[in-house]
Amino acid sequence: MAATRRLTHSVAVITLNNPPVNALSYSLRRSIIKEFVDASKDSSVEAIVLCGANGKFCAGADIKEFGSTSVDSVSLNHINDTIESCKKPVVAAIEGVALGGGLELALSCHYRVANVQSLVGLPEVLIGMIPAAGGTQRLPRLIGIPAALDMIVRGRHVPATEALQLGILDEVVKTNTIDAAVQMAMKVLGQPLENRRLGTLPVQAIPNVDTFLDTAVKRAKGQFRGAQAPLACIEAVKATLHLPFLKGVENERVLTASLWSTGQPQAQQYAFFSEREVGKWTTPSGGKWDKVPPKPIQTAAVIGLGTMGRGIVTSLSKANIPVIAIEQDAKQLDQGRQAVNALLDREVEKLKLQGKTSVPGNGLGSVKFTVDLGDLHSVDLIIEAVYENMQLKKEIFRKLSSIAKPDAFLCTNTSGLNVDEIASVTNRPQQVIGTHFFSPANIMRLLEVVRGQKTSLTTIATAMSLGKTLGKVAVLVGNCPLFVGNRMLGPYLEQVNYLLEEGSYPEEIDQALEEFGFAMGPCRMMDLAGLDVGWRSRMEQGLTGTNAPPGAPVRQRNGKRYSPLADLLCESGRFGQKTGKGWYQYEKAGGRIAKPDPWVRDFLDKYRRTHQIARHQANSQEIQDRCMFALINEGFRVLEDSIASGPEDIDVIYNNGYGFPKHRGGPMYYAANVGLPKVLSTLENYSKANPDVPSMKPAFLLRKLAAVGGPPIKEWRTQLGNTSSKL
Ligand SMILES: CCCCCC/C=C/CC(=O)SCCNC(=O)CCNC(=O)[C@H](O)C(C)(C)COP(=O)(O)OP(=O)(O)OC[C@H]1O[C@@H](n2cnc3c(N)ncnc32)[C@H](O)[C@@H]1OP(=O)(O)O
Fold first, then answer.
1. Does 61 sit in the ligand 1 pocket, CB within 6 Å?
2. Which intervals hold domain 3-hydroxyacyl-CoA dehydrogenase NAD binding (predicted)?
């Protein structure tokens, strides 16, 4: 744990050592200050190098210690000021990462040398905070307001080559970073340090700075919808213009305290740790992430090059895994090839920007396009990504049974079909697993890994590990219709339809949920996904179309409330963005700019008149409560059924796959924050007034937890008890 010290010539090298990422815990901070003061007093030491153990400089403050009392007793600001004012040159030797407080520490050093593979950044905004150890004051003084603001507000991890260009680093080396830092320290001995102390420098003026900052605020409000940290970051950087350095640092402290009182940092830090926790999967049969080794995946194949397949091929190639990409005929193969190549070209551009052009083959795995399933005989893992049709999927898996090598894993990319049924037609159900990617699959971080009844632990471990290799956050879920995310979406969208029936317009509903923080309101989301998808599914279920029960009341099915609104839209050819019309109108078929459509208003008004529904225009709060509590209630049912192993899993799914605002932690964290007794009573009231909407009947687990006062979310798991686990 202690920061250790060794002398190289007359240079003291202080090593931060707090595995796994050298986070600046209270005890590490104490050791650093002690070692540093000793070195600066030692007359045999002429210069000091700061580095991190195990190839990592430092990932910043220890987030686990936030909120504890020891935080301020040895503040990072005190360390940074001591370093910056040191009379001997201090050089940071950056390997791996210098993030948050780690970069702030490095910015207090007089020089910075980094390994070419390293990343630097101030990602505090991603955990609901601002850099509060001088970062918002030193970085603008070093690289100017625009570049600093961009890094701080987006929390970007900047590759070393870019950081060198920006002026954050003084030198980038391919090997022996610490030696290079020692060399640098020797080289600068005797040179004046005044202009290397960032806290003493003026910030460079830029023209029209007020307009520039106002625009940044407007952009952040639009982009981060309700998240306070990006705005506080702008405020803190703005202070460099009118406050002296120390006052600017004091302002960081005030802004941090004010952010903390919003509860957003706590929610985002919960989200951060939940993402790491879901990787540590367990199963009731005793399977555990660190006990079951995954099989290495050296080659993979993807069947079907529609939107999902293209993204999955790109994702695999990006992870440097050679892929075989299959389509059923030459024409579709050609279309798929063009689309994949365009996506891969964009990836190459991104790699170039990161200075990674020297990686052999550009660091992308090769892609072989073919129409011949026979080519799959030697691949390690196959992902089927054809459209959602059980018969078609089964036909493919039957064929794969005889073509794929016996130890190959067979994955189905389905958003809700029964993985057991698909596995049942194969000769290896233990090696079959669901991998539910989210569109666009090369960008979206979420991967739902769906375990079937017979899926082996090795198969789970391999799919989860593949998710990590692809840079995704993989969540293990059980097999039930629609799995976790889409299952919860059902009652949420049901409420949207009922609100539309009752008198709200699509844009009002979207506005309320976008104000809540969702990246996209539900009506725009349905238009994007295609209204016909749900329509076809409802036809297959006999809820609408020719299979619907004859003489069924229009607004009821099987004794439950039913809204035919989306069916009616589809019957008039309005499938959403793809047809240029859905809940909104678009500039053209395939267009993306949604405009409220007077046709839709007329259609809804006429519908209400036909069915004699008195107009009830719900306000934002009612829209948010009904939609959110419907979603959350289903989340409790998912937990009861053990389809997800804990509330954190659900929250990670929603934060990463459904545009849920991370500053609210996730739907289950939000429920805990609102208070479970309140969620329960709202659902109870609705349910009493609407007994024909069973999805709003409060879940048993919600009642159970509310009955014990709504404990903190980390205690929910203990209340889950013995349920019939699907995990
Ligand atoms: C409180 C004192 C003074 C306050 C004033 C100073 C304010 C400073 C503000 C900050 O510095 S806030 C922190 C800013 N830093 C970050 O946000 C970085 C967060 N970490 C990451 O982005 C990643 O973890 C990583 C460093 C890029 C590494 O990613 P990788 O995928 O390689 O590993 P992970 O699984 O993510 O992490 C491994 C392990 O380490 C834990 N961890 C990571 N960072 C921190 C941290 N800053 N504090 C505490 N713990 C951290 C992570 O939880 C994993 O733990 P596990 O137990 O193995 O799951």
1. yes
2. 300-479
Q: Is the CB of 124 under 6 A from ligand 1?
A: yes
For residue 119, give the ligand 1 atom closest to its CA.
Answer: 27
Residue 358 has pLDDT above 70, yes or no: no
Closest CA to ligand 1's atom 23: 59
pLDDT digits (tens, 9 = 90+) for 316-356: 999 999 999 999 999 999 999 999 999 999 988 887 766 66
231 CA from centroid of ligand 1 (Å): 22
Look over the chain and give the mean of its residue pLDDT values, rounded to a whole number. 94
The b-or-e profile of 704-720 (16+ CB within 10 A means b, else e) is: bbbeeebeebeebeeeb
The ipTM is 0.97
pLDDT exceeds 80 at position 254: yes
CATH architecture of 4-260: Alpha-Beta Complex (3.90)
Instruction: Note whether 504-610 and 620-642+645-720 share their fold.
Output: yes
Q: Which residues are catalytic?
A: 104, 124
Q: Is domain 300-480 given the CATH code 3.40.250.10 in the classification?
A: no
The answer, yes or no, to whether any atom of ligand 1 lies below 6 A from the CB of 275, is no
Q: How far is the CA of 261 from the centre of ligand 1 (A)?
A: 22
DSSP 501-551: HHT--HHHHHHHHHHHT-SS-HHHHHHHH-HHHHHHHHHHTTSSGGGSPTT
Relative to the CA of 126, which ligand 1 atom is closest? 17
Q: What is the mean pLDDT of residues 126-133?
A: 98
The atom of ligand 1 lying closest to the CA of 65 is 1
pLDDT at 7 over 90: no
**What type of residue sits at position 723?**
T
- CATH fold of the domain at 504-610: N-(1-d-carboxylethyl)-l-norvaline Dehydrogenase; domain 2 (1.10.1040)
How many percent of the chain have pLDDT more than 90?
Answer: 89
DSSP string over 621-640: HHHHHHHHHHHHHHHHHHHH
Structure tokens at 474: 């993989």
Q: Which tens digit of pLDDT belongs to each residue from 25-72?
A: 999 999 999 999 999 999 999 999 999 999 999 999 999 999 775 555
Mean pLDDT for the stretch of residues 635-647: 96
Question: pLDDT band at 468, cuts 50/70/90?
Answer: very high
CA dist list (Å): 668 to 66, 265, 476, 643: 22, 16, 17, 15
Burial class (CB in 10 A: 0-12, 13-18, 19+), 455: buried
**Candidates 1, 18, 21: which one to mutate for ligand 1, based on the most atoms within 8 Å of Cβ?**
21
What are the residue ranges spanned by the domains of the chain? 4-260, 300-480, 504-610, 620-642+645-720
- Tell me the DSSP string of 331-365: HHHHHHHHHHHHHHHHHHHHHHHTT-TTSGGGG--
Any ligand 1 atom below 6 A from CB of 227: no
CA quadruple 264, 219, 343, 325: dihedral sign? positive
> Is the domain covering 620-642+645-720 a CATH 1.10.101.10 domain?
no
pLDDT-derived band at 725 (thresholds 50, 70, 90) equals: low
User: Is there an atom of ligand 1 within 6 Å of 59 CB?
Assistant: yes
Determine which of 151-160, 545-554, 570-579 has the lowest per-residue pLDDT on average: 545-554
pLDDT at position 349: 86
Give the Å distance between the CA of 99 and the centre of ligand 1: 8
The answer to whether the bond into 20 is cis (omega within 30° of 0) is yes
The pLDDT value recorded for residue 74 is: 76
Interval 583-587 mean pLDDT = 98
Whole-angstrom distance, CA of residue 375 vs CA of residue 469: 24
Task: Kindly state if the Cβ of 475 falls inside 6 Å of ligand 1.
Answer: no
